[in-house]
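User: two proteins, same treatment. go.

Assistant:
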Amino acid sequence: MSQGGVVLGTVPSGTRSLTLDGSAVPVAPDGRFLIAFGRDFGPDADLVATTVRGDVVRRHLVIAPRAWKIENLPTLPKVSQPSAEFARRRPAELAQINAARRRNVTSDGWRQRFMWPATGRISGLFGSQRIYRGEPGSFHSGVDVAGGVGAPVLAPADGVVILAAAAPFTLEGNLLMVDHGMGLNSAFLHLSRIVVRDGDVVRRGQKIGEIGQTGRATGPHLHWGMKWRDQRIDPLLLAGPMAQ
């Protein structure tokens, strides 16, 4: 178990509730569940199952820290102030993203082995961060795969489309979000084209879009971000080594 990682487990027989550090965790009818740990998750966590008889089963989890790629830029200031156009548009964009993540959909994609949605050079790592004159910037919330405009983007696992942007967002460009069930979702940024619609059920390996350079991107690439609830996680840990 590590920062940015995901864990699948099975509850004890007769479990009626499961919590992680006091927050309820959904459990599938067959007793399987999923939990995850964000980039800055602490060193430990408590997983507690309560059975229908009132028995309590506790597991103290140790979460391994990771060494993130930190780049110090002592001569450069942090990014400039956002433009008036960005400030005007951003609240509505964030509202769409947050509403999409609150949707309750049913999918078993979380049970599958995830595949890479695109292949190519990994140009950005999850968790990396720049320090500008001693002031930390935001950490990189996903993994970037460089590729040509129009290269296919595939569903990494089964899921349901919860957001297919009708127009480019200021940062994300053409944004597509897929929910894999149990609170686990993927976001695909900077697409040149989205080929699925809101509410579509997608299957692992199905084409869902094409790589682009929309939004705030310096070159054509796919940014693949993943979240479990409010925890940002590392897609590379789910997909494993990329087969070129």
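Protein 2:
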Amino acid sequence: MAKSAVRERPAYRCAECGWHAAKWVGRCGECQAWGTVEDTAAPVVRTTSAGPVSAAALPIGSVDMASSATRPSGVGELDRVLGGGLVPGAVVLLAGEPGVGKSTLLLDVAARFADGGRALYVTGEESAAQVRLRAERIGAVRDGLYLAAETDLGAVLGHVDEVRPDLLVVDSVQTIASAQVDGAPGNVSQVREVAAALIRVAKDRGIAVVLVGHVTKDGSIAGPRVLEHIVDVVLHFEGDRASRLRMVRGVKNRYGPSDEVGCFELSDAGIIGLPDPSGLFLSRRDEAVPGTCVTVTVEGRRPLVAELQALVAVSPLANPRRTTSGLDSSRMAMVLAVLERRADVRLHDRDIYAATVGGVRLVEPATDLALALTVASAAKNHALAPGLIAIGEVGLAGEIRPVTGVASRLAEAARLGFTTALVPRDPGVVPAGMSVVEVGDIRRALHVAWRSATVIPLTSRS
């Protein structure tokens, strides 16, 4: 028998991060969350003895896997992120900013899932009529799709007993409250209780459950941190309001890869999967323009061809502007310092604006070389070769460091019609028809980029 520990005096503990305090405070001193510090009364000494088991332990090779086979959701890009589809009994948490398209995507998934079974869509933020209007607009009306507008946990569980769905969508977990727990919907205790109850139902009945989660102003998932631990899959729905591109990024996945990305296009007819989104991140021009360069980034396991643009102008200010869109500002500051110090490109008294095309966000180091070439081209008003791409990480000494997946990046660029590439040394397999130049430092890269003769017109790209 095991004996639990005895605490000598009462204390207070944060429900999110576990921070302890001798007295109650409204805000956690560790994670800075409000309303999460709770009184943990001194426990009574208890003994734990062996009890009945729910099922006998089996050798791992004898466990039946048929009940955990994935079922496609009907949306190919979402299945890519999930690892093939939804697993019966799995609980998926989908979080994203307001208006990014979470409800539209999940309503489409529920409708496709209802073609071969039953799906229950529970909304706590809209009325049933509002959801029906959206379903009519995106063509998601199905006989097997059931809709309920509820904010009480008991009522939600009652609908599950009545409908017996194969898929349950709760939009959102922060709007559902339990009568057994004190507090308003959305607080830490309510979110924990609602999530735990829905997870128990999913595991006991083999129902795939998708929970919609809110995010805070810094982009993290609202509610207790334990919510991300107890669910099986955590997905982030990302997108810029000014762009039609949306991305579902896997953060945690117990049934598949946790680094995969799905691309979608938001339109009036709903959200459409984009199996080949590279064309969204390129501009179409008849001639080369100074201040542009193309690179290949990797989102999850998918290479994406993207274009960077820069504008450099004489600054009338004592502190010149440095403005970025879709790029890491600190990374750009480092690249600018390397350009001025190692390649003699005058930038300290210039306003510099750098952006990506199509709303894609480029943060990996493999795009450093393309950013450096873009800024240098804009500063010297000299266009780069139109059929050129650049891949590589720039070091503080001006060297071009190797990056992962160069062969797959070159293959994607060759598929879109690019013929010349500046890459670090030892690029691996080179696609047929592509001229690859290995560059060891930023000076060599600038010299080759401005004197390359192997080009193709932009209008000829497939």
